[in-house]
Amino acid sequence: MEPRLVGPGPYRATRLWNEIIELFRAGMPLRKHRCRFKSYERCFKASEAVDCLHELLGSNQNFGPEVTRDQTVKLLKKFLKNHVIEDIKGRWGKEDFEDNGHLYRFPPSSPLKSYPKKPSCGKEVIKFPDWNEPKAGASQEDIPVKSVTMNSEMWYKRHSIAIGEVPACKLMFRRELTQTNIEEIWKSMTLSRLQKVLGLDSLDEVLDTKLVNSKHIVQNVYNVNKQGIVTLEDKSKELPHWILSAMKCLANWPSCSDLKQPTYSGFERDVFKTIVDYFGQMKEPLLTFHFFDIFVSVLGLLQRPSKAVEALQISCLLLPPENRKRLQLLVRMMARISLNQDLPPLSESVRTRTLMVQAFSHCILCSKDEIDLDELLAAKLVSFLMDNYQEILSVPSALKSSIEDHVVHLQRVQIKYAGVDSDATLPPPSFCHQISTDEFEYQRATGSQEPLAALLEEIVMNKEISVKDKKKKLKQFQKSYPEVYRVRFPTPETEAMLFPEKTKQKPPILMWALRKPFQPFHRTRSFRM
């Protein structure tokens, strides 16, 4: 069984869990082992399982080579707890798996996880202002407006002054957008772009849009300093000064201005432990529980780095400003520490980069409910964040420009013509709701047949075309749309009633022609001999 890339979408963590189980069962070598003078068929040592699964995860593009052996052991513990494996005596349910020579085996069938049914979230309808209403106090005549289909003749009359006829028009002053209107526009267009980047038909299964605060998006875009770090309006939500000083000390080592130079060995490790303890005691990760599924879905785009960066840029705009600022400062510190050759090792056994991922991945991303792969998924995301933090944690300029242009368009004074909608060039956002299968089939049938039936009736009732042309058109219609034609003319009799046969009268015989005497044949001169 070949590993496959699990792309974005709902229940990605569950899909990955099931795939790893299938790959592990297919790839784990089974052989005969002896234990305490007894032989056991089709089993494996714990250390062999760690070797096999570690290699499998490292070569799998959903996880990558940064998966450590310790993380592999933790995953096998969860396998034992969930009865993916059992010891040779059939015991399971506890996380007491160790990297040793203990013997394990597969049960007859390893249970795969079913996809949970999430409660359906009612779609939020965003109300936009009525742009066509003039400002209060404006004295302009009301011109009746109705939606019409633009044809070539109307276009020509509107845009040409050569014919000497210009349609009546007036300037439309748009209602002034409130701050709430602008925030809702930002939310609507931001989520629309995120859905497009992820390539999903809907965000319903990975994100509850009601939990997205439009104010947070606007604040994360505009309330930033020169370095792009979010500035908070509520100063009580700032990081404590002593934590900021500790983070600056390690990020700028050895040139640290906030603290004096260390006077004892191991000072940098104590500072690092202080930072780890502070972020480890948070009740909720920086990416929040609500957005866990959306960030896990983004991991499916890591094979296309540019798409993944854009998706993470947009997803991070949804965070509360205080979370976004802490994430910016923390990831920047982690990246600088990993690249700092002057900083003494913070661990004797683990490389600095691996230590950063292990120490902070849980406080950046984790699920509220226990997810068996959340540690591996968080490590994958944090590694990508460290490598691309400058782009990911900056404001997406293309999205910002498009939304600002849209807002300017909505505020611009428009020329409104009589008989034509003033906003024909930019239709307002439309929203849809889910319907049942029966209703869909009914709409599909009636939505296409009703216009065709109207067209057929128009052909039948048209008295300006000849009978021959009408029969020709009806024959073509019957060939193209037999079902619609059969409804209008269910029997040949009903069709015959449309063209009643006329009784043909023979013309009267001209009696005077019979009374004319017979004219004998006379030779002409040319026939004489």
TrEMBL record:
Q: Sorted alphabetically, which Gene3D superfamilies does this protein's record hold?
A: Rho GTPase activation protein, Winged helix-like DNA-binding domain superfamily/Winged helix DNA-binding domain
Q: Which UniProt keyword terms apply here?
A: GTPase activation
| Source taxon at top rank | Eukaryota
> Signal peptide: which range, if any?
none
Q: Does the keyword Protease apply?
A: no
A GO MF term: GTPase activator activity
Q: Which InterPro entries match?
A: DEP_dom, Rho_GTPase_activation_prot, RhoGAP_dom, WH-like_DNA-bd_sf, WH_DNA-bd_sf
GO terms under biological process? intracellular signal transduction; positive regulation of Wnt signaling pathway
Which residue numbers delimit the Rho-GAP domain?
201-393
Would the keyword Phosphoprotein be found if you checked this record's keyword annotation?
no
Q: Could you identify this protein by its name?
A: DEP domain-containing protein 1B
Q: Which organism is it from?
A: Ptilorrhoa leucosticta
Q: Its encoding gene is what?
A: Depdc1b
